[in-house]
């Protein structure tokens, strides 16, 4: 999948806000995702944006969990905020996840392991739905996002060494085109598109915003 066009994402006729009722059915979610038995392949959908930086480098495999929580008003997306003292991406909003270990069977195993380590979310509370497209990062990772519904009674237990906060944002809010901001930045002599969401008290950008953009684009296709 090529980089989503910001104008298309904002066009009312093609990117209307997904209301809570529309967001809820699992059939809609599953139809938007790569099935669990057929995970996506590299390169990431955003590779063209980074081709001059990454080149032909082999990226390290990584995975994140995109957790969806059923609430009275619809589905919420669960995020973490990393602690300020981390070596990479300190203080940033992210999904639970990380680099794949040699013992991980697949991206789903990586996402579940990291979610248990970071926020105490164990497999028994997770219903995997499918995969989004891979997302490549400047830091050298090919990230496979796993979308899953999690138990409504899940109580996060953040690892204080990694996670400063766990919070939720309604999927309906994230899907509102007015809440997506796309801007151009110059990096290494080339203009690149940066996506941002700005819910109250938080800034979602970078890989996390890119993964959300991919989810919303696939749900509207």
Task: Write up this protein.
Helices cover 25% and strands 32% of the residues. By secondary structure, it is an alpha+beta fold. The chain has one domain: Nucleoside Triphosphate Pyrophosphohydrolase. The longest helix has 14 residues, at 206-219.
What tags apply to this protein structure?
7 helices, 32% strand, eight-stranded mixed beta sheet, Nucleoside Triphosphate Pyrophosphohydrolase, 221 residues, three-stranded antiparallel beta sheet, alpha+beta, globular
Arithmetic mean of pLDDT: 87
Strand % is 25-35%
Radius of gyration: 16 Å
| CATH architecture name | Alpha-Beta Complex
**Secondary-structure element series:** HHHHEEEEHEEEEHEEEH
CATH homology superfamily name: Nucleoside Triphosphate Pyrophosphohydrolase
Largest sheet: 8 strands, mixed
The CATH topology corresponds to Nucleoside Triphosphate Pyrophosphohydrolase
- Given helix and strand content, the structural type is alpha+beta
Unreliable stretches covering 5 or more consecutive residues: 1-24
Shape: globular
């Amino acid at each position: 999948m090529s980089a989503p066009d910001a104008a298309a994402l904002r066009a009312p006729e093609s990117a209307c806000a997904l209301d809570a009722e529309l967001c809820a059915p699992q059939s809609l979610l599953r139809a938007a995702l790569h099935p669990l038995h057929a995970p996506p392949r590299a390169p990431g959908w955003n590779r063209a944006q980074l081709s001059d930086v990454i080149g032909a480098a082999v990226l390290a495999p990584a995975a994140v969990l995109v957790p969806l929580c059923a609430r009275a008003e619809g589905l919420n997306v669960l995020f973490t905020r990393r602690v300020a003292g981390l070596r990479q991406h300190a203080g940033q909003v992210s999904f639970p996840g990380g680099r794949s270990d040699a013992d991980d069977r697949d991206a789903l195993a990586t996402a579940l392991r990291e979610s248990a380590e970071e926020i105490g979310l164990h497999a028994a509370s997770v219903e995997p739905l499918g995969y989004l497209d891979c997302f490549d990062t400047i830091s050298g990772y090919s990230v496979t996002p796993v979308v899953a519904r999690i138990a409504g009674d899940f109580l996060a237990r953040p690892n204080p060494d990694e996670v400063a906060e766990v919070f939720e944002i309604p999927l309906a809010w994230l899907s509102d085109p007015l809440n997506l901001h796309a801007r151009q930045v110059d990096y290494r002599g080339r203009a690149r598109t940066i996506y941002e969401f700005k819910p109250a008290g938080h800034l979602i950008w970078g890989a996390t915003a890119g993964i959300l953009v991919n989810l919303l684009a696939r749900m509207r296709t």
